[in-house]
Amino acid sequence: MEQTNVPECGSRAKIRESFLQLLSDKKLEAITVKDICGRANVSRGIFYIYYDSKYELLEEIERHLTDGFIEIMLELRSAGIYEFRDSVRHSNNVYFEKYFRYIRANETEFRALLCSKYQNGFSSRFARAIMKTRLETFRLWNYPTINSPVEMYREEVLSSLYVSLFTSWLNNGMNLSEMEMARLLVALWRPLSNFVSKPGGGLHGK
């Protein structure tokens, strides 16, 4: 295939798009830089201007998706525990809706990384990032430290719940609205989150 160098301002986007398309059809190990460049119609030289390897490209995409999601979680943290407690008690799911709006806005990337039949480990890494942010939030909100095995198992399940629900939503063509999905997330999340007030106003859950 004859390759042409697209304008540099668009070549990086074309490389990312082609890589995501390939991830939907192949295992990461089976994808080569030649495959990516061939589908993007750019030279290997252009690829190596931006990335040292396909692994660096994958890392960039994962970091972009994870950082954007964590930023929404940090908005909730900055609002404080009392506002969060009141919003959940009154079924004001604005923050949870933001999660699903973010997934929809980045549908192509999330679909390639979460819904491919070839697992690449992103779902586990994404869940760990969510769990880490939850635990950091508990500390900042002066919530009693989670240190028992049972509590840590619950945190792992809760974090995986987020990712599983996002994946199911994508696999079902995002057939429910962000508001409906937010309500579903809270309904599933409440029994697992030990949603009770603690001495001093603490609250377990995010």
Describe the structure.
The chain has 206 residues and is mainly alpha-helical. The N terminus and C terminus are likely disordered. A hairpin with a 3-residue loop joins strand 1 and strand 2. Helix content is 68%, strand content 2%. The chain has ten helices and two strands. Strands 1-2 form a two-stranded antiparallel sheet. The longest helix is centred in the N-terminal third of the chain and has 26 residues.
How would you concisely characterize the structure shown here?
With 206 residues, the chain is mostly helical. Helix content is 68%, strand content 2%.
Helix-strand string: HHHHHHHHHHEE
First-to-last CA distance? 51 Å
Report the portion of residues in β strands: under 5%
The largest beta-sheet arranges its strands as: 1-2
Radius of gyration (Å) = 20 Å
Annotation keywords:
206 residues; mainly alpha; two-stranded antiparallel sheet; disordered C terminus; disordered N terminus
Detail the topology: elements first, then pairings:
Elements: H1 8-23, H2 33-40, H3 44-50, H4 54-79, H5 81-89, H6 94-105, H7 107-114, H8 122-140, H9 149-171, H10 178-189, E1 197-198, E2 202-203
Antiparallel strand pairs: 1-2
